[in-house]
Write a structure and sequence with these properties.
about 300 residues, alpha+beta, 4-stranded mixed sheet, globular
Length: about 300
């Protein structure tokens, strides 16, 4: 097992050293191990107008798969849209097809990356001349003052899964449609220098290795590309240390800092007074019990003067 992984790591290292970054619009990495499922996370608020969302993805390095957090970037020029990269199964290997910028969104394996990338096209907005219009139904604009917005509900007609690859056993079975095939003939622009820097920063973060975070990265998305300590969010149900958050028992009062019911269950806080077998909380009265017996202290005899 270790020998096989070492060989794969060596092959990947040679390929990566001989080729540009895997995010750059060509096929460079060929792996026999399936990438992990996509983590679920909350999109950070957009940092300002004209920023474009680039979803996170699993990349391959000498130590195996590592997570490249989703982030906000500026398009190389107005009118360009981002087509995410994806892993595809072909002749017994997983092949990485890098993302690219172009006038139309092309085929990205039918992978549902979320936040407008439902597997086909992009539902998060569109260019209106040199201004990008944001669909607030899927884009988190937060408190940023952006006037070029609209709201259109995105209807997903496919089963939503976290599968991160196309083809092969358990992979997405989508095939490119007519529009996506036509987009393949467009003039494409590779990932920007900032995007490559962002991927490089992720490759050097030990905590982002799938073998370390087990598919639940503590930095699932970052508001600022290349800065993995600013405006970051963890995978849903986990904290930035990669540790699962505790959840309250179903029906119990919601506690601050605890994940919603249905996420990984861990031991929660002591029950509040009023519940069976309640334990006393700091600063709170304990549960009522039987009255304690009252003891009367004996009165001392009167003191006599000598």
């Amino acid at each position: 097992m270790h020998a096989t992984r070492a060989v794969l790591a060596l092959i990947a290292a040679i390929v990566l050293m001989a080729s540009p970054s895997a995010s750059r619009g060509q096929v460079f990495v060929r792996i026999t191990l399936a990438p992990p499922p996509l983590p679920v996370y909350v999109q950070p608020a957009i940092p300002g107008p004209d920023y474009f969302w680039v979803p996170g993805y699993w990349a391959w390095g000498p130590d195996g798969y590592y997570w490249v957090p989703g982030t906000w970037v500026l398009a190389p020029s107005p009118g360009l849209l981002w087509t995410p990269g994806y892993w595809g199964w072909s002749d017994g290997i997983y092949v990485w097809h890098g993302g690219y910028w172009g006038p139309h969104v092309g085929f990205y394996g039918g992978i549902n990356y979320g936040y407008g990338y439902t597997g086909v096209g992009y539902q998060g907005g569109y260019w209106n001349g040199r201004v990008f219009m944001y669909n607030t139904a899927v884009i988190n604009v937060g408190s940023v003052h952006i006037t070029n917005v609209y709201n259109k509900t995105v209807i997903n007609n496919t089963t939503v899964t976290n599968v991160s690859f196309n083809g092969g056993k358990g992979g997405v079975t989508a095939q490119p449609n007519t529009q996506e095939l036509a987009a393949a003939n467009d003039k494409h622009t590779p990932a920007t220098e900032l995007q490559s820097h962002h991927e490089h920063a992720a490759s050097g973060n030990h905590a982002l290795l799938a073998s370390v975070n087990h598919g639940h990265p503590g930095i699932a998305a970052a508001a600022v590309a290349g800065h993995l300590s600013q405006g970051v969010v963890a995978a849903k149900g986990y904290n930035q240390q990669g540790t699962a958050k505790a959840v309250a028992h179903p029906g119990a009062p919601t506690q601050p800092g605890f994940a919603k019911s249905g996420e990984p269950h861990l031991k929660g806080p002591p029950k509040q007074p009023g519940f069976a077998n309640a334990a006393k909380m700091p600063g709170q009265p304990g549960p009522k019990g039987p009255p304690r017996p009252q003891f009367k202290r004996p009165t001392p005899p009167p003191h006599k003067q000598p």
